[in-house]
Structure formats: C-alpha cells, structure tokens
Predict the structure.
Amino acid sequence: MEALLLEGTPKTPHVHFDPTTGRLELKGRSIPENSIDYYKPLITWVDRYAREPRPSTVLHIQLEYFNTSSSKCILDLFKKLEVVRTSGNEVVVNWHYEEDDEDMLEAGEDYQAIINIPFKMIQIEEVDGH
C-alpha cells in the first residue's frame, strides 16, 4: 500500500499517511472549496489501511483552523480508525492545539466525547504562522 502525501495549501492541510509506520498526519488549515471531494481519498485510504493496519496507529492532527464541512469529514476519518481499534489494534489521536486556541482544544474534546479512540491533547507553543 502506498503512502498518501498531499502538500498543504492555504485552504487544504498537509497530509502524510504512512502505512509502513502507522503514522498519519493532518496539519495546517482545512477550508477546501469542497470538503467531501477533498477528504474522499483520505477516507478511502484509511478504509483500505484498516484492512491491514499496523499494530499501532497514531493520527497527529495539528489544524490551525477547519470549517464546518471539514469537521464532518474529519469525523468520518475517525470513524474509519475506530474500525482499526475495534479489530484489536492500538489507535491514538494526538490532537495538537496552540496554547491560546480554546476553540481548537474544545473541538478536540468534542471529538473525544463521541469517538471511541483515546485522544491525547498536546499543547504546542506559539509559532510564526507555520
């Protein structure tokens, strides 16, 4: 299975899903014109990965902003990872948020409340726009 690597743009996140390590990354901003079209290959990739996952999968989410339609797609990603976990594999979501970004922390906590995957809330120091 191939890794999924998408360069980030001002409207879409950097994506790096590595099937050999089980490390999945989503970083940046997620405000694509059409979230469903943008996230479809990511969800398809995780669906395929779920058939033969690594014993341990870690999803790193470090978004500075995402819109409402992206949030539904991110939830769909989490649901695919729930399948990996229910089949007996370890899955963790590392939810990175900036120190002063209460909204992003709350978004992570909201997902944590509805998804059956352990979340780690990781506070990151202020960065200069990257």
